[in-house]
Specification:
This protein is α/β, with parallel strands linked by helices and about 300 residues long. Helix content is about 35%, strand content about 15%. Helix 2 links the parallel strand 4 and strand 5. Helix 1 packs across helix 2, helix 3 packs across helix 4 and helix 7 packs across helix 8.
Length: about 300
């Protein structure tokens, strides 16, 4: 075990310092594993990338069974060892749909959520997943629930709470949720919220404040925007570009660093399939802003599009 919250179980410094996730001390800059699917044809490279992340201090990895139809979970199982002390977080709410128009299909019903947890346990090769996020499909971007896939959050939380009581999951998180859903879910002891959020996409500011007050980790996905056509990009903002030039770093690093400065409960999970990009993402955790620079970034307007709001 590490002797200081600033270092991992392997003795590496935690990128961005230490944060809390369901009682676990983790690196504030972690790793989102979704893009490992791009390395499907080079398994050795994918495993090496995960090992490099651990060597650089990452001990928070985000995944899902529906990433590559189990491929990504299998890579994590192969690459990450128990002694690494890595908190692996997974999610449910969709299932793999290989050959479909998109490789996912909704899986919101309680029996589907239970089956998805079991599938994650099997592909990760574990008896318990530290945190499982419920990916709701009632907000954009991404899939939207229709028909019998429109399920009340209370019914979903009931099955996840049962799985937690059974010891199959350690804690429950939420993903792509509204403020109302989060408030309704609070009695279930929510560990984290994953919503689309960045310097230029800040409609969830009230939800973020609630998470700070409740001790819930805030784990933004699409932290640099631009993941869908029409969604604004952090790296297009003039203030971000100017700050990057002044500090001799990249605009992407400024976008990630701003999130860490913006709230104490922010944990980042930027993803990549490239070792150099991984190192750049983790280095963003060391960037510091003076008051004037932070103020110039704070006033960048939120520019969300109909892709997110429609």
């Amino acid at each position: 075990m590490s002797s200081s919250p600033e270092v991992t179980a392997t003795g590496a410094a935690r990128p961005g310092g230490a944060g809390l996730l369901s009682g676990h001390v983790v690196s504030r800059v972690g790793y989102g594993a979704m893009q490992l699917e791009r390395l499907r044809g080079d398994r050795a490279a994918a495993v090496a990338l995960l090992r490099r992340a651990v060597e650089l201090g990452v001990d928070h990895v985000d995944t899902a069974e529906f990433y590559g139809d189990g491929l990504v979970n299998g890579l994590i199982r192969e690459a990450i060892r128990p002694e690494d002390g890595v908190v692996v977080v997974s999610k449910v709410g969709a299932d793999p749909h290989p050959g479909g128009p998109i490789p996912l299909r909704p899986a919101q019903r309680p029996e589907q959520l239970r089956a998805s947890v079991e599938a994650n346990l099997a592909s990760l090769g574990v008896d318990r997943i530290p945190v499982v996020n419920l990916r709701r499909l009632d907000t954009r971007p991404g899939l939207l629930a229709e028909g019998d896939q429109v399920v009340d959050v209370d019914d979903q939380l009931a099955v996840l709470t049962a799985l937690r009581d059974e010891g199959k999951i350690g804690a429950i998180g939420l993903s792509a949720v509204t403020l109302d859903v989060l408030r309704r879910a609070l009695p279930a002891s929510i560990a984290c919220v994953q919503n689309c959020y960045s310097l230029v996409t800040r409609e969830d500011e009230e939800m973020l404040r609630l998470c700070v007050a409740e001790g819930i980790a805030w784990v933004p996905f699409f932290p640099l925007g631009g993941a869908f056509p029409g969604v604004p990009k952090v790296t297009d903002e003039l203030a971000v570009l100017a700050t990057a030039r002044s500090l001799d770093v990249t605009a992407a690093q400024i976008g990630l660093a701003w999130l860490l400065h913006h709230a104490p409960n922010v944990l980042l999970i930027p993803g990549t399939a490239d070792a150099g990009h991984l190192e750049a993402n983790l280095a963003a955790g060391a960037i510091r802003f003076d008051d004037a620079t932070l103020a110039s970034l704070d006033v960048v307007p939120s520019r969300s599009s109909d892709v997110l709001l429609g």
